[in-house]
Amino acid sequence: MKARLAAALVLAATLICASVAAAADLPPSYGLIGSMTAKPGQRDALIAAVASGTDAMPGCYSYVIAADAANPDLIWITEVWDTKASHDNSLKLPAVQAAIAKARPLIAGMGGQTITTPIAGGGPRWEKRP
User: Fold this and answer.
1) Is the pTM of this model over 0.90?
2) What values do phi and psi take at 38, rounded to 5?
3) Is residue 20 part of a domain?
4) What whole-number distance in Å separates Cα of residue 92 and Cα of residue 88?
5) Which residues sit opposite 38 in a β-bridge?
6) Residue 23, domain extent
7) Residue 109 CB: number of other CB atoms within 10 A?
8) E strands along 1-130, which residues?
9) Beta strands in 68-123, from DSSP E residues, in sequence order
10) What are the tens digits of pLDDT across the range 55-86?
């Protein structure tokens, strides 16, 4: 039930955001929302490993790692990029590759991933949007 509600909320938010973007004539951007489950007791180490590769990613407006409030092993990652190509290219960066290598042994499972079209938000990187 929770998964269906979450999926419905993501779909509704995406549809609303797409219509707002069209009305505001903003340049499109690329977003991802996903989750990872850490091995038991390893969530903080997983967060540190993932975060270690996020400092210099060209085209990244926002990269937020959040601890799930209910599940002590679950993290959520919300990303906003200027383009899908920038996201894809970031996966080739040495710092990101190193972070993936650190994180891999700490991961018990990968959750689903939702692609979004971010429209509004905040933060210093977001403010630099064209």
Assistant:
1) no
2) -80, 155
3) yes
4) 8
5) 107
6) 2-119
7) 11
8) 30-38, 60-67, 74-81, 107-116
9) 74-81, 107-116
10) 889 999 889 999 999 999 999 999 999 999 99
Q: Is residue 84 part of a domain?
A: yes
Encoded tokens for 26: 């903003």
Task: Spell out the residues 6+ positions from residue 57 whose beta carbon is closer than 8 angstroms to its own.
Answer: 63, 86, 90, 93, 96
Query: In angstroms, rounded to a whole number, what is the distance separating the alpha carbons of residues 88 and 76?
Result: 19
Which residues are within 8 A (CB) of 94 and not within 5 positions of it... i.e. 6 or more apart? none
For 95-106, the pLDDT digits (tens) are 999 999 999 999
Domain-located, residue 36:
yes
Question: In this structure, what CATH number is given to the domain that contains residue 104?
Answer: 3.30.70.100
Q: In the structure encoding, which two tokens stand for residue 34, read together?
A: 């996903």
Token pair for residue 121?
A: 């938000």
| Rounded-to-integer distance, Cα 35 and Cα 48, Å | 15
Number of separate domains in the chain: 1
Answer whether 59's CB lies under 8 Å from 27's CB.
no
| Residue 50 burial (10 A CB sphere; 0-12, 13-18, 19+) | buried
